[in-house]
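Lecture 7, part 2: worked example. A protein chain together with adenosine-5'-diphosphate.
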Amino acid sequence: MSLSEFSLIDDYIATSATSRADVHVGIGDDCAVVEVPPGKSLAISMDTLVAGRHFNEGVNAVSLGHKALAVNLSDLAAMGAEPAWATLSLTMPEADVRWIRDFMQGFFALADHFGVQLVGGDTTRGPLSITVQIHGFVDPGRMMRRDGAQPGDLIYVTGSLGDAGLALQLQQAGKLDMACHQHLLQRLDRPTPRISEAMQLVSIASSAIDLSDGLIADLGHIVQQSHCGAAIELQRLPCSPAVQAAIARSNRWNLPLSSGDDYELCFTVPAERQQQLQQLTATLDSPLTRIGVIEQQPGIRCVDAEGAVDDIESGYDHFN
Ligand code: ADP
Ligand code: MG
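Predicted complex, written out as structure tokens:
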């Protein structure tokens, strides 16, 4: 039996406030039919969240609706693509109307913010699982790929690193205190996709990736696909006061280096475009921080305040 029989779709899912002119047919027919602007290419990405694996079944459904879309928007941001349409596959054990209402509220709040229209999907019965596919537009000659970094390019990140990882750590230890850890939990449950930053960076950055698995792992994809390496200055890593305190307590850098779920952008900028980047910083929502440099030598090296170098390739455990 299909869950769509419960008229859930009409009542809670086909209720997008965003109505785009480039959508010829949205929810309600056999297919969505949409129009890509002339000269643009379609950027497509998909992410699945499985209960028990990517989130706890008891997690706030509004937050889950936000996050399911946010992680997809983050992939578009990493490519420099402008978001347009989403599809949503919902698999649920039962038709829990309140859950769906809350989930869609979180989903639509973020979708409307970025002008994204939900144009279709599927609703079925089964173990709780959520898949979102996102579609956006890129200029094929001007996108941020993982393989564009060159030795000498400077490495930057948006926002701050390690907040989501610290929230998860505290949560798992039963030490998350809503009074003083509100900001951290927000960073874990309601990540901000860096779309507006990406729209500005697309003409400046030589490569980019979004940080879902941690800086070392994700920057690792850039250096591998660009056939180069990187040096990171630990003292430069942008961290919130809570993460700074955790680093000082543990004397370990694993939160900003290897905890995931921050959904910030890591990108590289050629030396000759530094000035262009400087002019940008004042206009952006989140800070941009230079954290290191792309080098010819493969691997990632972390340099501490005393200038001591830790080669991640040979000592990854140290940070994990
Ligand atoms: P079909 O049998 O043709 O697949 P469905 O009953 O599955 O039709 O869906 C009816 C309409 O509702 C379709 O336009 C479909 O895209 C849309 N839809 C179903 N589930 C979702 C969902 N979770 N999110 C968005 N649209 C959905
Ligand atoms: Mg269907």
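The radius of gyration is 20 Å. The longest helix spans residues 61-79. Keep this in mind for problem set question 3.
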